[in-house]
Amino acid sequence: MNRPWAVAPPSGIEAFGAYVHWPENLDWSTQLLRAISYSSLGGSEFSEVMSAIRTLDVGDREAWLAAFSGLASELDHRASECAERGHDRSAIELWRRACIYFRMATTFHAMDGVVELPAMRDSRRCFHAAMTLDHRYHFEMVEIPYEQNGLPGYLVSSSGPLQSRPTVVVQGGIDAFSEEMWFKLGEALVRRGYSVLLPDGPGQGESKRRRIGSRADYEVAVTAFVDFLVKRDEVDPERIALVGSSMGGYFAARGAAFERRLAAAAAWGAFYGLASAPPGDDSRRRVDQAMAMFAVNTVEDLLEKIQKFNLEGVASQIHIPFLVLHAVNDLQVPFAHAQCLFDEIPDNRKRLVAFPPDQPGCTHCQLDTPALAQVVIADWLDETLEPE
User: Fold this and answer.
1) pLDDT score at 387
2) pLDDT band at 279, cuts 50/70/90?
């Protein structure tokens, strides 16, 4: 029985291999790098980010929240002024960055299990404002029927007459918000001719705020996504793919194994399973984050959920083209997760892309350079789904 989560990932700054701003705090340095990385995607500006963090005391989460919220609020105000004067393009660009800065402001509180902050709502509002003005895209806020609930999300395609297109469901992981997944991958795919569904799946973003918890049998949610998509005119029901990032790699594998209407799937950062016990000491906040994701109130309930959260006996049932991307020195999820998942997939149309240490893309889910992963994923989808 394979248990790749028992393999310890590399640790320390030497293994990180990317830019480290605060050598004494790799966690903060990682989140700063994450904010900077959005500069290539129209979600941040390097100088704005560095100005915001210039006087921060490392570890002061309230100061981090205030700094990024303040920056976002300034851009939000300027965007409103631009929109009022008819400068729509300027307003769009400002609201896009405000969306990401509000999102980054909440980073460390979200790790503590906080599911609702004003900055979270402001991030969504700025995203809606930017996308509503951006006439390059058909943009629709949707509610996806799911058991007794609805899962919020966005359906986006390029402007012009609506037509049947290959469609990709794009999801993140434990700390995911659908809005940021637009920047990380969704927009790049729409520009290539795909329609994109960006759901806040169970345990994610707005669904987490609604106390819709995640689940080990995530294929139930994937089936809800596909049920929704096959009824849409802008979706080719024969060419629906799923891409999951970080823990979303687990979601992608579950969907690929059990939702037979998917044409392809990709794990952008493999995630084979969770350990049977939550981490200790330094990671109490990670436990709180996981409890919020699974919508449970006790560690005992969390442990019960975790026991079922793995791909044992699942990966062998994947019979569609499947892409795995993973950094060899991933400090959060050992590369063993990727190798194990890849080895167990029987379909010969599988592909494993390993990003080497100390090179661009060497971080968890290529957070240092998401544009690099975009190219790998989008090219593979082009080859697999053949969009017009």
Assistant:
1) 61
2) very low
